[in-house]
Amino acid sequence: MNHAIRVHETGGPEKLVWEEVPKPGPKAGEVLIAQKAVGLNYIDVYFRTGLYKAPSMPVTIGMEGAGVVEAVGDGVTEFAAGDRVAYAGALGAYAEARCAPAEKLVKIPDGISFEQAAAMMLQGMTAQFLVKRTYAIKPGDTILVHAAAGGVGSILVQWAKHLGATVIGVVSTPEKAALIKSLGADHALLTTDNIPARVKEITGGAMLPVVYDSVGKDTFLISLDCLAPRGLMITYGNASGPVTTDLGVLAAKGSLYVTRPTLNTYTAKREDLVATANDLFAVVKSGAVKIAVNQTYPLKDAAEAHRALESRKTTGSTVLIP
Predict the structure, then answer these.
(1) Model's pTM, two decimal places?
(2) Is the terminal CB of the chain with fewer CB neighbours within 10 Å at N or C?
(3) The domain at 2-121+291-321 falls in which architecture?
């Protein structure tokens, strides 16, 4: 027997339906995984609401997970039954068992649990390319991270600090401010603060070379106002809705740059995926970045987890257990 959370029509968390589905068999190039943990991410909300269009309906949402290989399809040589594996960027994670393309999988090293792996793959590899490639953080940089207590944000704070940056985090509550300070943030600002004014004060008027923003519509212009001339705005999420703006504002605010990167692009080549995952595993095993699984829900209660995520009641990572 196999169960999955499926969406038959887009809408609120109530559209997440727990139902029995056939257990799949791996096709050529695929691996059948008995899942032990599934990661919760905002991209799951985007697919549920229809902001991101599913390839077909009904759809099993979810982009990352970890488990044990049960069987492999024709042509798969890198994995075998019994291997501990994890993945990100493969739609269909909200299931007890699922098939995934072998090219999307990586082996979980010793010392990393299934829960950690499921919680870190999408968020942690996103953080990796954001701090290493989209903008390569250097010692002495001062950066700003919105939603700094969230899944990607909390990893970004730690990794940026590890790379020698002064980190300004923005959060919604004093409790979350205390949390990100414990993760190494040098400054914890609240969403109710005048954030550009505080940044100006912190930097002595120099402003910032880069801002990391996963909030979207509500913070986009605020983020631009925190940048130094020719600074880079990295918008990598739409928690408050998609960004729509006249590009002329970039000229008016100092010849600014904006990018909207995705994990799929940065890990499209197999060698990039493996290198990104291995860099993530290494920094976690070193202790420089800690993966905080602060919420755990049974997979069948995914709707409850979505409500908590959307109401900003979560911190760190959330894992769904099949």
Answers:
(1) 0.88
(2) N
(3) Alpha-Beta Complex (3.90)
